[in-house]
UniProtKB/TrEMBL annotation:
Domain of life where this protein originates: Eukaryota
GO biological process: proteolysis
SMART domains tied to this protein: ZnF_C2HC
Protein's UniProt keywords contain Repeat: no
Species per Swiss-Prot/TrEMBL record: Araneus ventricosus
Keyword Zinc-finger: yes
One Gene Ontology molecular-function label: zinc ion binding
Domain CCHC-type: 333-348
Protein name: CCHC-type domain-containing protein
Amino acid sequence: MSFLKRARKENLISLAMDLGENPAPTFSKIDLVSLIQGNKHYNEDDAKFMLETVVTEREERLKMEADRERLKMEVEKERMKMEFELEKLRMTSDISKNPKHEKPSCYELTKTVPSFDSKDGDITLFLSLFERQAKRAQIDTKDWVSGLLMLMPSDIVQLIARESEENFDNYNYIKSVLLKRFKLSPEEFRKKFLHHQKNSEKSWREFTFEISNYFQEWIEGLTIDSFEKLKNLIITDQLKRRAPFEAKDHFLDEWTKLVSPSELADKLDKYELVRSDRKYETKRKQQFNPIEKYTESNQRTVRHKPFTGTWNARNMGYPSRNGESKQMHKFSCYSCGLEGHTSRFCPSKAPQRGKLNPTVQGNVITTTEPKREDASTILTAEINVPVEVAADVMELETVQVKLGSRTMTGIIDSGAQISVIREDFTSGIK
């Protein structure tokens, strides 16, 4: 049954008809599968084999139709080529009979006009060059289509071959078809006019002709037919170059059609007015919803609040998982209350930090220079052995710790930001 669901609708219709059913074109795939399975002659293996046969026949039929169409196009192209050769022979025969009335041949255009490139070529520039060379060679207008076909690639020849017989020899009609198919927009001609570069293989006269043609197509596409309109177009183009990118995106649909400087200026002024109003409203919202500023006092208050939420909710100002972010708190000193350092590195304790620990000081060797005796210098070395000296408890920060009915003084460890008490004080806690 799964092979029926994977089959295409056209193949299911053919299979149902082979089984003697008469499915309607409006049937869905589910209806067709139900219709096939409900047939009295339905057998899964036979149906699968018949479906494969239907698919194979359909693919062969499509392939034959494609080959037939391609062969038809080749025959048509060969016929046109033969007609051209016959026309050339007829013209040669007429010239031999009447040498005084020699008729120009379209074949001469292949020597002066390059073939058209449908991917990178400019159809307007090509047709302009073709018409100039055809007039210079004095070729009859009714033969222009034949000469044009000789310079076109096969895909464009096939496009022209689809036209009716009565329009096939009409050059103006064929020209309109090609312009409609390949012609660029006025904006594209403007870009080509501004950014077109000279080819090293071409002369400056050819380059002048190309940019002149681009300019002509640009103004003709915008129906610029007077000096006043041309002046407005140039001024508008300068305004567009200096307009912000946001405005260009805002008026994107009509940007290329704007040719009046006053109209463009009004649109830009309205756009900037609306943007300034929105910026003012945004600033007012920010004033009425200011971000909470943490001072030294409320930072210490927040730091010592009991921890009741998740870690991310009190994580020193780091963003929490739900996307909210808080201002990061700075370290504060327990000794002086200032921010930016801890009690261990407090500047007020700088004199004490210069003193050595009594245990370490026992290994220090000092020298003294006593009074001179008998014109000689006597040096005395004193060596101190390590002795146990009680630390100055008064310099440590303490806090009262209460556990049940017992109260004891604990030492605040500023490095770990926790309170330290003796081990025997908590020995009874499990």
